[in-house]
Specification:
Layout (H helix, E strand, L loop, with lengths): L2 H20 L6 H6 L2 H15 L3 H25 L12 H18 L2 H26 L5 H11 L8 H14 L3 H19 L10 H4 L13 H6 L9 H26 L1
Length: 266
């Protein structure tokens, strides 16, 4: 299968997943099917970043769509008034952007001395902007504003999937040509998620929530493994812009539909 075909499969699974997430009373098995979407999009994006002729342009586009989606999420979260705890925070653009950015600085550095220096600066930047986001959003105590600031500043902790998914993307990128090690890594990662989130951690709803923002069904991302072996190394035919536009648009539409269904039921 080509990258184009894999992306279409991921898009269908993603759409089913978001129907299950946003539409009240939707069957729970839609979320199970949807666990395939993110790792499959990560795999396709890793190859896309590898093959792109202009990495800076790729990163710029990913960041721009990330910020635009963050702004749309913030608008809907405030003005649809869905209620505290139901903020719209989906934005995988930020996760992929930061994953690609880490790959970019790793490969651009060329030697371990520069890599160490760059990553120390990156870690310092993450700490400073996280503190800045807390200061900026504290007066409003707003989760959606907090995450919107995280999108603008590129904070790994505030991405969809958190720091672990940013690192997962980086690992997928470097293992993408080695299908068996990539499969073993994915299976291990999925198993660790299942083990960690089903344990009775006393602080899970505190600091650990940012590191493990998952439910047990996230382990079903292991279903991506057969698609590693189905990939035939070709790009296929697809319009990249369509996927960039479809992702935020379908989430916003489903969020609004779910809002009206929920309020009608009330």
């Amino acid at each position: 299968m080509s990258i184009g075909q894999l992306k279409w499969i991921a898009l269908v699974c993603m759409s089913l997943d978001h129907i299950g997430e946003f539409i009240p009373q939707a069957p729970v098995w839609l979320r199970y099917i949807g666990r395939l979407a993110l790792p499959l999009f990560f795999y396709c994006s890793a190859w896309g970043f590898y093959y792109t002729h202009d990495r800076k342009k790729y990163l710029t586009h990913m960041y721009a769509f990330s910020v635009l989606m963050g702004a749309g999420n913030l608008f809907l979260s405030y003005f649809m008034n869905r209620g505290r705890g139901n903020e719209l925070l989906n934005n995988i653009f930020t996760t992929i952007f930061l994953g690609c950015f880490i790959v970019y600085i790793w490969e651009s550095a060329g030697n371990w001395k520069k890599r160490t220096m760059y990553f120390v600066l990156f870690a310092l930047y993450q700490f400073i902007v996280e503190l800045l986001c807390v200061i900026l959003t504290e007066p409003w105590l707003s989760a959606e504003l907090y995450y919107a600031c995280g999108t603008v500043f590129g904070i790994c902790k505030l991405t969809e999937g958190g720091i672990l998914f940013v690192l997962y993307f980086v690992c997928v990128y470097f293992l993408k040509e080695r299908k068996i090690p990539l499969s073993l890594f994915t299976a291990t990662f999925s198993g660790c998620i299942l083990l960690l989130v089903t344990r009775d951690w006393p602080y899970y709803r505190g600091p650990l929530l940012y590191l493990l923002p998952f439910t047990w069904n996230q382990c079903l991302m292991v279903t991506v493994i057969p698609f590693y072996f189905l990939y035939n190394g070709t790009r296929g035919t697809y319009r990249k812009t369509f996927f960039y536009v479809f992702y935020p648009l379908h989430i916003w539409i489903l969020f609004v539909i779910g809002y009206f269904i929920q309020n009608k039921a009330l």
